[in-house]
Amino acid sequence: AAQGVWCPACGLAALAPTMQRDVLIALAKQSILSKLRLPDRPNITQPTSRGALLTALRRMRAQHTDTAISPGMLRDNSVPHLRPGMESSTSRSVRLHFRFTRELAGSPEILQATLHLFWAVPSPRTHPVTVRLLQPDATGLNVTVASETRLEVQRAGWATLDVGRAVQSLIGEGSQRLTVELEVAEDWQSPLLAGHRDSHRPFVAAQARVRTPHRVHRR
Amino acid sequence: GIDCSGDSRMCCRKEFFVDFKEIGWEDWIIQPEGYHMNYCAGLCPLHMAGIPGLAASFHTAVLNLIKANNADAAVDSCCVPTQRRSLSLLYYDRDGNIVKTDIPDMIVDACGCT
Questions:
Q1: How many CB atoms lie within 10 A of CB B23?
Q2: Which of B23, B62, B93 has its CB closest to that of A42?
Q3: What is the pLDDT of residues A83-124, one digit of tens each?
Q4: Is the minimum CB–CB distance between A28 and chain B shorter than 8 Å?
Q5: What average pLDDT score do residues A138-143 get?
Q6: Phi-psi category of A39—alpha, beta or left, where left has phi over 0 and alpha has psi -120 to 50?
Q7: pLDDT tens-digit profile of B8-57?
Q8: Which of A44, A106, A154, A159 has an alpha carbon within 20 to 30 A of A175's alpha carbon?
Q9: Alpha-carbon span A105 to A142, nearest angstrom
């Protein structure tokens, strides 16, 4: 309650700011200890320095990933997932392929192209994801990264990404296929809804203008 | 949700950060360095009532308290959390093990009037 006014819920007069702060800190301590089911704060007889501890944790995490991908050995969740419409993916990345229809042949001018994705978020926290637009080279065997965007996904739902420039350059090179790679943290099984229900299938919406041949009249 | 600023008396979210080092808890809690114990405060005039609140049961409990303490209080809407998230802790337990725990609904992100 504001200063000088009583609290309608507890009937007590408002506390002085310093006392209010002490009460809030006591409440914070009590709430954390009760949620951790600890009667009191643990007494650490031999504390490790925070820096050494964080280094150890970082090393442990790095070691965990190294052993998992050493040659000849696969971790369970890095078994390639082959899904309809998906060429190959590990638990860390998914590739989507979009083929352009004939209307886009003949190098039209791309006015606008937007990638629509429906994020499936496993838990309400921030999920970093890197979206790469891949461009095949002339042989089609290698791909280069045309653009890379890092996103922070916080909730399930539709998201859009401008891919106009990438589509324009692909069309200009005569390719009719846009490959999008989604790279996610390992504990995020699949950023997209499993099973690709039609209502939530990723799609690209493009607006193009067919170039009319430039006619020159010679007199 | 509205974050409190200046002298607004409307229902808003007040930020309150407990620094573990200040309260001498930094030796057993490794991460994070503190706890955002934000809370909701402020008035809920009738024209703000009905902005989505947290849970009717929570609202009923608070209303009963108000009635018990002051029967003639004409309050029918309260300033409550409308969005919360968990607090992730990395800490030593009593046996010296390092434990990681996510405590749900510990951090208030937004407040509103029920």
A1: 16
A2: B93
A3: 334 344 444 778 888 887 666 556 678 888 888 888 887 677
A4: yes
A5: 69
A6: alpha
A7: 778 888 889 999 999 999 889 988 899 999 998 887 776 665 544 444 55
A8: A159
A9: 23
Six-digit token string for A115? 């990638």
Instruction: Spell out which residues of chain B touch residue A187, defining contact as CB-CB under 8 Å.
Output: none
Q: Which residue among A9, A11, A124 places its CB closest to the CB of B85?
A: A124
Handedness of CA A152, A157, A163, A167 (dihedral sign): positive
Write out pLDDT tens, residues A12-47: 777 777 888 888 999 999 999 999 988 888 887 766
Using the Cβ of A10 and the Cβ atoms of chain B, whether some distance falls under 8 Å is answered with yes
Residue of chain A nearest B84, judged by CA positions: A124
CB of A152 within 8 A of CB of A198? no
CA dihedral A19, A20, A21, A22 (to 10 degrees): 50
Burial class (CB in 10 A: 0-12, 13-18, 19+), A190: middle
Tell whether B89 is within 8 A of chain A (Cβ).
yes
Partner residue opposite A50 with nearest CB, options B30, B70, B96: B30
Cβ atoms of A102 and A176 within 8 Å: the answer is no
Phi, psi (rounded to 5 degrees) for A30: -65, -40
- Whole-number Cα distances in Å, A181 to A98, A136, A160, A216: 11, 13, 15, 44
Q: Is the pLDDT of residue B107 over 60?
A: yes
- The single-letter DSSP state of residue A192 is B
